[in-house]
Specification:
The structure is a homodimer of 420-residue chains. Chain A is globular, with a radius of gyration of 23 Å. With 420 residues, the first copy, chain A, is of the alpha/beta class. In chain A, the strands form two sheets. In chain A, strands 1, 2, 3, 4, 5, 6, 12, 13 and 14 form a nine-stranded mixed beta sheet that branches. In chain A, strands 7, 8, 9, 10 and 11 form a five-stranded antiparallel beta sheet that branches. The two termini of chain A are 17 Å apart. In chain A, strand 1 and strand 2 form a beta hairpin. Chain A is built from 13 helices and 14 strands. In chain A, helix 1 packs across helix 13, helix 3 crosses helix 13 and helix 11 packs across helix 13. At the A-B interface, helix 9, strand 8 and strand 10 of A face helix 9, strand 8 and strand 10 of B.
């Protein structure tokens, strides 16, 4: 068994937390903009220091590779992303990159023998908060193996032409070229040059912490349905129009949100999660009855039949009027549950056992680059606990010990996979 | 009895509907910006044509006056506003201005004797949609007679310095000076130079139409309470955080909106109206549980005790948690019910009767310049029907016949008041 180094890990956490620091303990690090470029340069500098070979592909994905003992062997890769949501934390994504760096640094420091080349990767623009869509770079290199509905979302031209939310005329392509990380297409990860992929990540939920476990052996990423529910009413003056003749679109939306909670909760699936996170309202002034409101709803679970049941409940909203308003339901996005490669999951579990960690099997409710890469290569993930289950916020936190333990599990799991 | 002229009224409606026309049947005419300046110039041109004397005061209010037979008598004034809400209709406000023009035009055309000078007025910036606050110009000239809570809202410096919502560095004062309608303070309407005020307006509700009446003899403007209800939750990842530990601020707001509807409806006051018209949500993205949501609620009714009862229901929201979120309720604005001057209401009723109109007594749920001027002068209002009760939207419509009838009622009511 090999152990990664908590001191090195702590230094990395401190260093990367500076890139895009908000001053409130978190970071804002949009893909390919200044703070992200600084994080990428730090990665390249550290990996060059230990003698890794650096390559960029045409999506700006960065590969840092240590050669293995067998010159014919394909690479075993690890990685995650350095970009964040606005006012996000210091762990979502970047911890997976730091863990991959730590694995390679430990391999060099301890002179650990391995047959396959080992590669640490930064995937470009996982969050998709500045340039849509999310997961666009891992999807581009996996494109020909993706299911049709995912291919429809990841049209290469659209990805390259996507404009920044914050600098309207700046495209993803231009930002990529400006960043200095625009590399060659032949450097892409492929089935010919890579064998397995591992991604370590924070859980982003409270399950490990609540159970008192330090390691999550992830077995799947939940499938998801994303829908949009809208209501069309009539704008009238708030002071002059009698209550019983109103068509109040915001009241309709409020009723529907409450109704969905009741109906979906009745199903009684403990791990099912659903969220109405976004709402719009027009004209949205205090003295007009709203004529339009819509909200997002997304639902995530392992069993596709349950997801379809929930979809039906949402679609049935359109069968009646709500507060006098017509209701429309639109399907926005769906993805099916992805199960990780069984032999890689077994490598992770064995490593967690041998390191004497408190571990458990766990699903991922969030999407990750690994879930896209799983169409290209056998893939798996390792989770470490999130304090209070908080993520996508500045309070996001994981102890140095757990971060290091996660990296150690990944290192030992990779060494097992190296022999398969 | 004298009758106004439907042909002249129709021409005015067509002419004013061009200023700020959206192309969809309505107008966007922000106070003191281009379209409003065009409407004001049209008013001045028409009133000069009939020999009225034109004056502007230092709030840009425009006065067009026909002298009366008694050189000592104070003016009897009529008026409303030419500005509109964004994508508003062709009647809210401007109909009161057109009716005042029509009254003066009829007086001249028919050579109607009158003792008091008669004045048609445009009040500047009634809507307050571009420069806050609403009713700021009528409030400025009535300031010393306003109740303290209204005085607090209408600080002259704040009104002048208010910045445009659409041109950030443009202040109300600058727009006023640029408009060419910045006049002298000594031109303001005062108790020394004016006796009574009349305002004709569309009902902005469906009561007259539903009852089959053409004239509303308005007896009061409803009092109002405006509050803001906010919820503080916790942003967590939509895919990873179990349902039973969430603090979902948007779900909390939805529950509270539904609860308020239930509780206020239980009170059973037929004419009471309340509206939750505005909502905000943070971070407002589909894959985050919202950590903040707030909404406006305003309630209007004649009886102040009932308004206080509703206020208590709203405030009581803060006594418990909603969907795990803390709730805060803030009072934003209040105004008490204003009853019109009884002898002027009687003049309007007599005129409506003598003209053989179908009329009824009615309250105003909306605020109007008249309600502010009522602190300065004896004041009353006349309503004409709104098709479908629609207002603050492009569908706003009143027949030429009803518009003309309303002007005729105002003319004859003024001639009665002229003798008192």
């Amino acid at each position: 068994m090999y152990l990664c180094d908590p001191k090195r890990m702590e230094t990395k956490i401190k260093t990367f937390s500076q890139f895009g620091a908000t001053g409130n303990g978190g970071i804002t690090r949009h893909a390919l903009l200044d703070a992200d470029i600084a994080a990428r340069r730090e990665f390249v500098k550290c990996m060059e220091t230990i003698g890794a070979k650096i390559e960029y592909d045409d999506m700006g994905n960065i590969y840092a590779t240590l050669a293995g003992s067998n010159p014919e062997a394909k690479r075993i890769v690890m990685g995650s992303h350095t970009d964040s949501v606005p006012n996000g934390g210091n762990y979502d994504g970047v911890l997976g990159v730091m863990a991959a760096m730590e694995v390679l640094e430990t391999v060099v420091a301890e002179n650990i023998p391995h047959e396959h080349p080992l590669t640490a990767i930064i995937w470009t623009n996982e969050e998709g908060t500045c340039f849509k869509p999310t997961l666009g770079s891992s999807a581009t290199i996996s494109y020909e193996y993706l299911p049709k509905d995912l291919q429809a979302i990841y049209q290469h031209d659209d990805i390259m032409k996507a404009e920044s939310l914050f600098h309207p005329s700046l495209t993803f392509e231009q930002a990529l070229k400006d960043s200095g990380f625009y590399g060659k297409r032949e450097n892409r990860l492929t089935r010919d040059n890579a064998k397995y992929m591992f991604e370590m990540h924070i859980e982003q939920g409270p399950i490990l912490e609540t159970a008192g476990n330090n390691i999550g052996v992830v077995n799947c990423v939940f499938g998801m349905r994303s829908l949009r529910v809208s209501f069309e009413g009539q704008t009238v003056h708030a002071g002059t129009f009698p209550m019983n003749h109103r068509k109040d679109a915001l009241y309709a939306a409020a009723q529907a949100i409450c109704y969905l909670h009741e109906e979906i909760d009745k199903l009684g699936y403990k791990d099912l999660v659903y969220t109405t996170g976004e709402i719009t309202c027009k004209p949205c002034v205090h003295n007009c009855v709203p004529n339009f409101a819509d909200f997002s709803i997304e639902v995530r679970y392992s069993d596709g039949e349950v997801l379809e049941h929930v979809e039906k409940i949402v679609h049935a909203l359109a069968d009646k009027k709500w507060a006098g308003c017509k209701c429309k339901v639109v399907d926005c996005w769906r993805r099916e549950t992805v199960y990780w490669d069984e032999k890689l999951v077994a490598c992770v579990e064995e490593a967690a056992k041998e390191l004497d960690t408190k571990y458990q099997f766990i699903h991922s409710g969030a999407g990750h680059d690994a879930q896209i890469i799983s169409y290209l290569l056998p893939t798996t993930m390792i989770f470490v606990p999130s304090k209070g289950g908080l993520s996508h916020c500045e309070e996001e936190w994981t102890s140095v010990e757990d971060c290091t333990l996660g990296a150690s599990v990944m290192l030992n799991a990779i060494l097992k996979a190296d022999k398969k």
